[in-house]
Design goal:
The complex is a heterodimer of chains A (163) and B (783). With 163 residues, chain A is an alpha+beta fold. Chain A is built from 7 helices and 4 strands. In chain A, 48% of the residues lie in helices and 11% in strands. Chain B is globular, with a radius of gyration of 28 Å. Classes of the chains: A alpha+beta (163), B alpha/beta (783).
């Protein structure tokens, strides 16, 4: 259940559009944020109610896009591009390294709920392959060594955030 | 066609109209263009890439590969389907589609009628070149009617385009993307649309299959079929019932471009299971013991003659049936005529009056009667006094098409149905009050103060304004609620709304498949007159044809009491029911899908249906059985060369057309001969009787209110348990709450759980019509 304030805010928000359904994606992002990074079944029903469209349409949108999640994910999402350029430049090595370092394979989440590892087809950085993205940050020409640096930096950030 | 153009397809010159879909133009010319996603009713999507051909604007222009479904035909176009490049492309498409399609054709229910199978064989895609595991899905439970097998999907999107865009269902969708696209519901559950069975037909492969047929499966080439007409409502959709080894297996819709075209409702598709009802009558009885049919016919004839001789013809009567064929009712009428007896067709006088008035309007030729395709083209729709979804489901689907095209939909009835969610304006009134609101529309003047509520005035004024600008207005009116006042109001509205520059079409929803035919029968006696004679002991012999009097709300519904006053009763039906159980003689006849005859649908359209010859003396059509009964009375010369127009109030031309009618024809509309004798009883509405401030209203359900579909099969599962509905305000003032078992036995004769419905007019108690009588297994089957 979302708080009434959020519901009111979103209901008001979608009214800004000539057709309320246009606001669906934003509503879903806000709901995903509210529910800790993913959309449980109730969020689908709530989005449908706020926007005024049938539930299957919301579910269709939720399952179409990569950045909506229908099951719990880690606090940070790592996507590794496995498209042609990145594949040629060794994205598989990165995946192996993640496995070694975080103990998770593709589609898995670390036991502490920090990271989820997912594949993606092309981040648009073919000239700087291999490319990965963690949350909204893109990292290019990534090597296992560079990965260690990135992960250490991120865990330092997390520790700072918690303290 | 205004702009006739010529295109060339594989060297053949094809005439078509400018702007016609190129793929459809080829199909119309009888040229097979492979396709999956295109459907004549649903249009094109360009999703399957299979209808590719080399197309050039003219012979001297270079050709390039195009999807024919995405082009409009233009003059001089040259289409080459058999170009090697196009053929190779299509073969590649099939190979792609087959990458993940299971190799289960030998055990798949679609095998033998699968487009994908046909196309794969046609393109000679025989060997699989890939070695990775196929993508798999989990299937969903979609209810008792439709089976889901998602692995077979080739993502043509026909299902979702049909279910959501065409039928306006909101509990089905498409999920995911790329090679993990999924068609189904958000979660497992019964499909809520009354038209879900059409998914089976629109799917070009076996993702959606008939769940009931799966259990009694037969390869389509082993099925025996005869073209028939659906018996589950008055629309008269054309169907193809299929049998194997004399058992009924399934129904699929059959195309009739003036009636149902591509689709049919679930009640019709699955309602035919009554053919296999365990209570099927297979033996004749005469005063107890089972005897050969000939023996029973002979004894019945002798008995009828004896009674006629002793007491005169006036002591003999028959009850015909609005679900029996024109032929069967005619034979019954002739039997009565030869004995001097009388015949009665309806359940009660109110029904008789309403149905006969609506029939007279329908077949008089005065107003335009809308066929289903014409309804789809309406630009204004008014539904009066009923729930279209429950009473004539396919009309609902047609009105949805009009609504999609922008027609405003006005609904005036005591209770909101499913169509109300698509309506522009919906008004709740007490039963019988529909006519007073429409009278205001008719008069066009401001009603006297207090005559109409503010809400009613607003509705009437919105209606007047929308009707004024419409070019093809349509009025749909229910006759199931036995209210002649509503029928008249709809008639006058349509009549006044017809002007020089436009005609207002009208369509009535009748209670049964052949109600119009029943209403046209000459010399029909009012049921209450007959009932009075029975009660007074004046009737000594009664013949009942294909009617279960316990379920139709007639004064005879206490069959035991009525029959006890009659010396001899004979029932002719295909299954054992409360009426056959009480009858002294029982003659079995074929069930609808194994009999032949004709029906008049809601338009007065005569349609002939055929049957498979099924062996067994119990499987002759009721009409045949009755004719042999007439013969056995020795009166066959009294019938002579009787024509339909001698029995029914139709013109000689209609009779000629009816005689010439063949199975599979589009059907002919009959015309009324002279004036239909309409009872001169004053307008009255049985339902306006108020008890403790409440008026009863019958909820006509798609699943539950139709007798035959409730006999057997999955349609029974979809019928709700008994309930009553009240407006929340009425419930509150009576201190009743949702779900509570409410006792209305004193006033309305029922005790049932209460549902609150804000979309029910205040002061109305809505009671569903549930004809879920438990099937009675005949004695000889038990033993």
């Amino acid at each position: 259940m979302i708080p009434q304030t959020l519901k009111t805010e979103l209901t008001e928000y979608v009214k800004h559009y000539p057709s309320e359904r246009v606001g669906l994606i934003t509503v879903m992002h806000k709901l995903q944020k509210h529910y800790g990074g993913w959309l449980p079944d109730e969020a689908i029903a709530e989005a449908a109610e706020i926007v005024g469209i049938p539930e299957p349409e919301v579910e269709g949108v939720a399952t179409f896009y990569n950045w909506f999640f229908r099951e719990p994910v880690g606090r940070r999402i790592i996507v590794v591009c496995d498209s042609i350029s990145c594949h040629l430049c060794g994205c598989d090595r990165l995946v192996e390294h993640f496995k070694k370092r975080l103990g998770i394979g593709m589609g898995e989440t670390t036991a502490d709920g920090e990271y989820t590892l997912l594949p993606v087809v092309c981040l648009g950085n073919c000239d700087q392959a291999p490319s990965i993205m963690i949350d909204e940050e893109t990292y290019n020409r990534v090597t296992p060594e560079k990965l260690d640096e990135i992960l250490e930096q991120l865990s330092a950030e997390s520790a700072k955030g918690e303290s | 066609m205004a702009d006739n153009i010529k295109i060339t397809v594989d060297g053949q010159v094809v005439e078509t109209s400018a702007g016609e879909n190129l793929l459809q133009a080829c199909i119309n010319a009888g040229i097979l263009v492979p396709h999956f996603c295109y459907h004549e009713a649903l249009g094109e999507a360009g999703a399957c890439r299979l209808c590719a051909a080399m197309v050039s604007a003219s012979a001297d222009k270079p050709a390039r590969l195009e999807m024919t479904c995405m082009l409009k035909a233009a003059d001089g176009m040259v289409v080459s389907l058999n170009d090697p490049y196009a053929e190779g492309f299509r073969k590649g498409v099939i190979e792609d589609l087959m990458l993940n399609h299971p190799h289960d054709c030998p055990v798949c229910d679609e095998g033998g009628e699968c487009s994908l199978q046909d196309m794969t064989v046609t393109t000679q895609h025989i060997h699989r070149r890939t070695r990775f595991p196929k993508r798999t899905y989990e299937n969903q439970y979609l209810g008792p009617l439709v089976h889901h097998e998602m692995n077979r999907c080739i993502t043509c999107y026909r299902c979702v385009r049909y279910y959501r865009d065409y039928a306006l269902g909101d509990d089905f969708g498409v999920f995911g993307s790329r090679d993990r696209v999924y068609f189904g519901r958000v979660r497992d559950g019964v499909l809520q649309s009354e038209f879900s069975g059409n998914l089976i037909d629109v799917c070009p492969t076996g993702v959606f299959t008939n769940k009931i047929f799966r259990e009694v499966y037969s390869r389509p080439w082993d099925l025996q079929t005869r073209r028939s007409v659906c018996v589950n409502c008055s629309v008269g959709c054309n169907v193809l019932p299929a049998f194997r080894h004399t058992t009924f297996r399934r129904i699929v819709p059959e195309r009739n471009d003036e009636v149902n075209r591509f689709f049919m409702c679930d009640r019709g598709r699955y309602g035919g299971e009554f053919t296999n009802v365990p209570s099927r009558l297979k033996t004749a009885r005469f005063e107890g013991p089972c005897l050969p049919v000939e023996e029973v016919t002979a004894r019945t004839a002798a008995k009828l003659k004896q009674i006629a001789a002793e007491h005169g013809g006036g002591a003999i009567a028959a009850i015909g049936s609005p679900r029996a064929s024109l032929e069967a009712n005619a034979a019954l009428s002739m039997l009565m005529k030869s004995l001097g007896g009388r015949i009665s067709m309806f359940a009660n006088n109110a029904e008789r009056d309403a149905v006969r008035r609506a029939t007279a309007i329908t077949v008089s030729g005065e107003l335009n009667i809308a066929s289903l395709p014409e309804m789809e083209k309406a630009d204004f729709v008014l539904c009066v006094g009923g729930d279209v979804t429950g009473e004539a489901p396919m009309m609902d689907l047609s009105i949805r098409q009009a609504q999609r095209a922008g027609a405003p939909v006005f609904i005036i009835s005591p209770r909101a149905g499913k169509l109300d969610s698509f309506s522009t304006n919906s008004l709740r009134v007490k039963p019988g009050e529909e006519s007073s609101v429409l009278d205001h529309v008719l008069s066009g003047s401001v009603p006297p103060k207090g005559a109409l509520s503010g809400e009613q005035t607003d509705f009437a004024e919105a209606l007047i304004s929308a009707l004024g600008s419409a070019k093809h207005p349509l009025v749909v009116c229910s006759v199931l609620h036995e209210d002649i006042g509503v029928v008249d109001a709809a008639y006058w509205l349509a009549k006044r709304a017809s002007r020089l520059d436009r005609k207002c079409a009208i369509a009535f929803m009748f209670p049964s498949a052949n109600s119009v035919g029943a209403a046209l029968l000459r010399d029909d006696v009012a049921p209450e007159t007959l009932h009075a004679d029975i009660s007074a002991g004046k009737i000594k012999a009664l013949v009942v044809l294909e009617r279960n009097l316990a379920l139709d709300g007639s004064p005879f519904s206490d069959i035991e009491a009525a029959f006890s006053k009659v010396e001899f009763t004979c029932a002719i039906d295909f299954h054992e029911n409360a009426t056959t159980q009480q009858a002294s003689a029982v003659v079995p006849c074929a069930s609808h899908y194994s009999s032949f005859g004709s029906f008049l649908n809601y338009e007065g359209r005569a349609q002939r249906f055929d049957s498979l010859p099924i062996p067994g003396e119990w499987s002759r059509s009721a009409g045949e059985m009755l004719l042999s009964l007439v013969e056995a009375t020795g009166n066959e010369e009294a019938i002579g060369e009787a024509a339909f127009s001698d029995v029914y109030e139709i013109t000689p031309e209609s009779n000629t057309a009816l005689e010439a009618l063949a199975v599979g024809d589009l059907g002919n509309r009959v015309r009324l001969a002279g004036k239909l004798p309409v009872a001169k009883s004053p307008r009255r509405n049985l339902q306006t009787a108020t008890h403790n401030g409440l008026v009863a209203w019958n909820i006509e359900l798609c699943f539950g209110s139709e007798e035959l579909s409730m006999l057997h099969g999955p349609t029974r599962e979809l019928a709700p348990q008994p309930f009553v509905e009240l407006n929340p305000a009425d419930a509150e003032s009576r201190k009743l709450s949702e779900g509570e078992v409410a006792d209305f036995s004193a006033d309305f004769g029922l005790v049932a759980p209460l549902r609150l419905n804000a979309n029910l007019a205040p002061g109305v108690i809505a009671i569903p019509v549930l004809k879920t009588e438990t099937a009675i297994v005949p004695e000889e089957v038990k033993a």
